[in-house]
Amino acid sequence: MAFIEKGKKSLGEQVRGSIKKIIPxxxxxxxxxxxxxxxxQVAAAFYRYPSRRMLIVGVTGTKGKTSTANFxxxxxxxxxxxxxxxxSAMICIGSRKIVNPYHMTMPGRFTLQQLLWxxxxxxxxxCVVEVTSEGIKQFRHIGIEFDCAIFTNLSPEHLSSxxxxxxxxxxxxxxxxxxxxxxxxxxxxxxxxxxxxxxNADSPHASFFLAFPADKKITYGLNTSADIRGHxxxxxxxxxxxxxxxxxxxxxxxxxxxxxxxALGALAAAQAYGVEDEAIRQGIGAVSVIxxxxxxxxxxxxxxxxxxxxxxxxxxxxxxxAAREYAGKDRRVIVLLGAEGGGRDKEKRPLMxxxxxRLADFVIVSxxxxxxxxxxEIIEDITRAAESAGKERGKNLFVVEERREGIRKAFxxxxxxxxxxxxxxxxxxFICVRDKKIPWDDRTVxxxxxxxxxxx
Length: 456
Hints:
- Keywords: Cell cycle, Cell division, Cell shape, Cell wall biogenesis/degradation, Peptidoglycan synthesis.
- The protein is about 40% helix and about 20% strand.
- It is of the alpha/beta class.
- It has an eleven-stranded mixed sheet, with helices on both faces.
């Protein structure tokens, strides 16, 4: 099932191709920001501004965006609203779902607007959009009239795309929040839609985002005196992660305390727009799998396998701590990881290697998306950091460039009840090598290798 016909170029791609044929490449690079802005405006107008006919929530931050967006989609749905979702893991129009096939969180402007238009056409009243700094930098948010912005957290990531400046990175994220005061007034279902800022008060950067104007401002968190404060977090075997807000109990049906913060952000936004508490509880509890986010793969093996998207040190710390807690004291954690090329942050690679070495018993370093970079250079940047943190090559640290072989190696090391976690790709549908996009899905490959291992 696909919402947009596979193999068919979008109108935006056709326009881009025509422009690049006319304008020399050096000139095009100079005028590219203007082109991005212009194309976004044209796309919104072409599809008659579909975001004006739905309540639009944007979710941004360094990590937790996808989970927060999925929880909120589920809460709105449980509340009786037909809801769309645009995230790096999934795209939904009401109950119809596909794994995001675009290898980017925010696809092209015409694709975004076409998806929003399809949502309106099929009766959606709400939509949750995962918003990235790269998407904002390329004006992909222009023409989408957001009513609510959720801030999850902020840590150094994607800085190479922002001139190496954390301040520029933060200010780019801030453009989403600034847009709330510029939107046209919306009347949906007979009521004026208020603007709202939802911010994670556990982040030291929350005040920056709360400074933007909005009709409502709500904070959430675990370790602060937030407006909506989660507490009494408990991991429950075979059930998931329990937490409370006041006296109200909620259950996230996934493993990992970090899911609670993301659920709280969704809870805060859902409450801000009138979803009943019981529907919110049902919505949070209904999310048992987010594609490629600590997704368990079971083919009858006697150890546990998770596929996860963590691709920077903070997320790797969180997912490996969850894996360590899942494994318990007497079992081992085995991690496979890598990093992207193509000009992505080189500075994060040693931090990833250090985190993996500290929290996992065995580390396998492999390919993710090298693009035009030398894969072994990327791998060695991570591996040397893991060595500095105490791991030893050939003993508990392995370099396996080809990712399938790396996954096979990780499984070969696993004993009964160990935990293997495959980081960096999640549910992405391609591996990008030079100018080629090679079909790929860690979940499918993991299942194939596990079935081979157990003899199915």
